[in-house]
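Figure-free illustration: sequence to structure, shown twice.
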Amino acid sequence: MSEDTPWLDDHQQRVWRLWLEVTNGLPVLLNRELATDSELSLQDFEVLVFLSETEDHSMRVVALADAMHWERSRLSHQLTRMEKRGLLFRESCCTDGRGQLVRLSDSGWEAVVAAAPGHAGLVRRVVFGGLNMDHLEELEQILGHISATMAAEREALEG
């Protein structure tokens, strides 16, 4: 089939279905592991990881939403749930007073540190298990290409 045909060819269809199986199934598996080991959801863990990787364990809410590719309303609801559980807190941004900072609490730090080993172990087994260095480099290149293409599409849509 040519580029102007709206359908995927058989090989593209098989690869696409595998992609969907992985991208839909992996979060379910990661969620189960996190819920069992730490009572965190994958979304909780994602937010905690982003905050834990900053120098002062805080980010502007807008920057966090952008970094996670989440809608601000989705992030706001997630932060509210996490704030109620004591994993983080929000405060006014001291530089301009208009924005909000979200900051990791001590409990949030302890939760991400406790959850990380089990999460990393599962990722290592499921995603990287059985891949040699050549596979890993190829996967990195492929995902890098897809990520760059997605960024260009987002930019074009935002105009």
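We now fold a second protein in the same way, so the two outputs can be compared directly.
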Amino acid sequence: MRTVIHEIEKFRDRRYLFQDRFEAGEILAGMLKPEYGHIEEGMVLAVPAGGVPVGIQVRDILGLSFDLIIVRKLKIPGNPEAGFGAMTLDGTTFLNESLLAVLRLRDSQIEAEKARVRSELVNRNARFRGGRPFPDLAGKKVILVDDGLASGFTMLAAVDMVKKAGARETVVAVPTAPLRTIERLSAEVDQIFCPNIRTAYSFAVAEAYRHWHDLDEKEVQTLLAGC
């Protein structure tokens, strides 16, 4: 079945659209609510850190259960803002092979970054989730939430975890993403909700927000404590 992609047409290609992540989550939840509001078999999984405030808004408005999904970007050496892939908590990796062909990283560099991220995933799961087992997703409709997508490899890792856990339906819900990334994900999920799809070659998630900062771990823990 062809993936259904939902956007808000008047938001296409706009920048500095959302006041902050909470407003973005409210708009996103409004798109999701007609189909997923208060369904018994639904669950929201947020990608920390930036996906947490978005996910909390979605959870509150839809009235669904909530948890985090711990996945991390594999960072390019010397450029921590960019990644060459992503890894799940169980160690599964997704590599941007076309980018790696350009970067020409040594195998030792790739393996060193994998080892670093593997340790970071375990630590983040302990700090943010108390090391709890991954939730039972068998037969559930799972909504994966982040504050935006760039290359989409981190979300691909999250999708893989959800599918392995037996979800009946996998939905990606993000406030902003480039069209090329939406197309990359479309073969892997049932539905995508993204109010602000952008088509320009240059893209940054932060450009969708008027007020933006990187959330630190203390902020994430404070938000989770209020859940």
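Summary for the second example: The CA atoms of residues 135 and 203 lie 33 Å apart.
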